[in-house]
Amino acid sequence: MAISERSRHSVTRRNGAGAMRQRLGRQIVLIGMMGAGKTAIGTEMARRLRVPYTDSDAEIETAAAMSISEIFARDGESFFRDRETQVLGRILAGAPGIVSTGGGAWMRGENRDLIRRHGLSVWLKCDLETLWHRVRQRSTRPLLKTADPKGTLAALIAQRYPVYAEAELTFDARPADSVEAAATRLIEEIRAADPQILEPK
Ligand SMILES: Nc1ncnc2c1ncn2[C@@H]1O[C@H](COP(=O)(O)OP(=O)(O)O)[C@@H](O)[C@H]1O
Ligand SMILES: O=C(O)C1=C[C@@H](OP(=O)(O)O)[C@@H](O)[C@H](O)C1
Ligand SMILES: [Mg+2]
């Protein structure tokens, strides 16, 4: 997605009408694989709860004035990962809101420590076939530009799931749900896990 399209998306969603405005006791940080719905569900939750929404990928793109694919191609993955840690530190130190991370963010210990310090980590757990169905048509994920992208996705799952499992809350991202249904269920599960996290403002 182009930078301008992404920022416009988050700006329009940020001010959308929804249920009663909520105050968040801490950040709600969505983690998980590419295509799990961190961006889509996070945007919808923030719109509903009327709380701030930030996507670390969109912040990196805005700061660099380049797309994620362009950053990977020009500066490489390790450069991107350092920017990701910087941006997460800045976002998490700000007002509590919903934060969607990129799929690799939780894999760095420093990022996990930051997230744990500031927020509730939520793993959107999703199966390979669903993820593949969602990401196969998109060219926006540089890690999947391989000879066998589905195999790459499967290998990333094998490597990452044991680490994602360290999240405070695991959400079963069911393929049959719509984004709206998933957001409703996730808000309920977050309230159940931490009754103090959401309060009417
Ligand atoms: N139940 C669902 N949960 C999440 N995403 C869904 C769902 N159904 C369809 N989608 C679509 O799948 C895609 C998920 O991609 P995205 O939100 O960018 O994931 P991520 O940020 O985790 O990589 C979006 O295009 C979204 O509209
Ligand atoms: O899984 C990953 O390592 C990545 C996921 C992407 O974000 P999404 O998970 O939102 O697609 C983006 O940060 C980058 O392409 C790397
Ligand atoms: Mg995303």
TrEMBL record:
Binding site for ATP: 35-40, 141
Entry's localization field: Cytoplasm
Signal peptide: none
Family matches, as Pfam families: SKI
Cofactor(s) in the UniProt record: Mg(2+)
Enzyme Commission numbers on file: 2.7.1.71
Top class in the EC scheme: transferase
Keyword Cytoplasm attributed: yes
Major localization class: cytoplasm
InterPro entries: P-loop_NTPase, Shikimate/glucono_kinase, Shikimate_kinase/TSH1
Cofactor binding summary note: Binds 1 Mg(2+) ion per subunit.
Keywords associated with the record: Amino-acid biosynthesis, Aromatic amino acid biosynthesis, ATP-binding, Cytoplasm, Kinase, Magnesium, Metal-binding, Nucleotide-binding, Transferase
Binding-site list for substrate: 57, 81, 103, 160
Reactions this protein catalyses: shikimate + ATP = 3-phosphoshikimate + ADP + H(+)
Any one GO molecular-function label of the UniProt entry: shikimate kinase activity
Residues the entry annotates as binding Mg(2+): 39
Entry keyword annotation includes Cytoplasm: yes
Functional pathway: Metabolic intermediate biosynthesis; chorismate biosynthesis; chorismate from D-erythrose 4-phosphate and phosphoenolpyruvate: step 5/7
Xref: PANTHER family: SHIKIMATE KINASE, SHIKIMATE KINASE 1, CHLOROPLASTIC
Function: Catalyzes the specific phosphorylation of the 3-hydroxyl group of shikimic acid using ATP as a cosubstrate.
Family: Belongs to the shikimate kinase family.
Complex formation: Monomer.
Protein name: Shikimate kinase
Organism: Paracoccus spongiarum
